[in-house]
Each structure stands twice: as C-alpha cells, then as structure tokens.
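User: D-alanyl-D-alanine carboxypeptidase. Structure?
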Amino acid sequence: MTITQIMDGAVTEQGYPGMVAEVRSGGQRWFGSAGVAELGTGRERLAEEQFRVGSITKTFTATVVLQLAAEYVLSLDDAVEKWLPGLVQGNGHDGSRIIIRHLLSHSSGLFAFTLDEDMLRRYASPELLGHRFDRWTPEELVKISLTHPADFEPGKGFAYSNTNFVLAGMIIERATGMSYADVVDLRIIRPLKLAGTYAAGRETEFRGRHTHSYSRLTLPDADAPAHDVTELDATYGFATGELVSTTADLATFLGALLGGRLLPPVQLDEMLTMTPVPDGTWLDGYSYGLGLSSFELPCGTTVYGHGGMITGNWSYLYGTRDGAKVAVTNVNGDWGCPPLDLFPEVLDAAFSPAD
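Assistant: Predicted structure:
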C-alpha cells in the first residue's frame, strides 16, 4: 500500500482524527495527510502545523548532552551525583553509581516515574481531564521515581524510563547555567532554523498554527468519545517529552543529526552504537543507543530515530544511517497503545527500495 492509503485507513478503520506524514529524500520533500486537524470543523491537517512530539524530545536532549561532552563541559562517565549532588539518594538509590551514559541508554535501572500508580491515575485514566493542567518541577518527578526500588543495578540491564531524561535535562541546566528550553533553542533550534519548534515548559497553549489533540482516556471501547486535550501543561514531560514541533522541522533535525551536522563523528558514533533491547522488554525488537533507537523494516532497511507519545499524540521520526532519507509521521489521537504496526507500515512504504 501507499503511504496515502495507509493514512486513509488509520482514519477510517482505526478512528484517528487525522494523520500526517513527511518524507525527505535527495532534496525532495513529500507531505501527505488524512482526516482532520480539528473534529467537527473539517479543517485538514497541514504541513506547517505544530503538535507535541513526546519522547522524540529525548533525541534533542541526548544531542545537547553529547555536544557538551564533545566540548569537555561534561563526560558521559560523570556520575549523576557530580552534577546533582544529593538528588538521587535513598531507598537503595545511589547517584554516585549512575553515570550520564546510563541515563541516555536507559541502563540506569531507575524506575519510570510515568509508571507510578498515582501518575497513571492522573494521565492514563478517565481522571486525565481533571489533571492535564497539573504542574511539575523536574525534582518532583525524580522524587516520584525514587519512591520505587531500582529495576536493576546501574549498567546491568535495560528499562525504558522517562526519569533518565529528566535527570539528563537537569544536568544540562546545571552544566550550562541556562534553562533547558534556552539551551535547546541556542544549540539546535536556531542553527537549524526550526521556526515551529520550542520547549513548551509551562505554556499550555500553542504559539502557532497547530493540530488539535484527542484522547479516549485509555478506555478500551472503540466507540469511546474523543476528548479535546490540545491545551495541556507539559511540565510532566520536561526534557523527556515537552517539545512542540512540525513534520518539516523534525525531518530537518534528524537529517542534520544523522548527516553529521550537529555532532562530531566520535559523539555521533557513540549515539548510534546500538544494543538490542532484551526480549520481553518494552521496545522488544528494537535496538537502543544514546537517545536514539533503531530497527529493521520489513523491506530490509534499518532506520534510526525515535518515537514519541504524549497526551493526545503519537509520532515517529526515523531515517537512514546517513540521514539522506528521513520520514516523520503523527496521529492526533493517543489510542492504539501505541500504533506500533501502523507507523512501521508507513516507514516501510517510505523506505522501500522500490520507491
């Protein structure tokens, strides 16, 4: 099937309000959409519209950390305790044994604060509508994680944990003396002229034209109503998931990253050194490097990038190892949990050698 046919099916068969995809290759750009940007209006989804990118934020965060490592501002072997003294302590945790590399590779063993029972009640249940404007500090998110025992000893396993990148964002702030938002803006957004990209922080509304985002509040019924959750306090995402962007900006970013325009060769190679995710673990079938994942498509092409989920949205951003071809896709509904069949199907159509 073509990408257009796949997107049409996502709307008509899976009930997503709308879907977009963009493919960059050889200086050429293709954009397609299906469905709507806002239910009840018929407004189509457009290439310039902004949406929340969720965990694709992690790749931006890792890029900044690796830039700082290249500049000898910090080392990937620095302990968390060095930069955030006293924060990761208690309940069997020891920040002196967790290094920055563990954070970026999800090998710290730190419990994912987003899986805490109270956080799941707030953001993954029908109670979401009463909590989507809750405001958090990074310190509060880390403290939630530390109420749980570690999943394993640092460096002895893999567990995808948003706590890792909250800590990475805090280290960026401590190492630079600037806010996370300002550092990302200075080091990535401005150099690449990503006009539709920014770290939302405490902003609950969008700065520009945007898609509306919808949630079924994790109710399993396919006929469950879709609630508009466009306005949202994304502080629970911070450096792990708070970015807003567009398909064009994301494609530009990943093409520049994989193409060697954002990191020196040594740091890019480290980012792209992949370890297979253990069987039975979240992202089973993928490999993970430093803030970047990879997997092989049915067509035989291995792609590198990241997926992202945040209330009301699912997104995927992947490209070839050299960044010569990049594809990004988004649905403005957060059910499907996640659409791990839908997005690879789009990527397979985009990266098939026949194309």
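The mean pLDDT is 96. The chain has one domain: 3-39+47-332.
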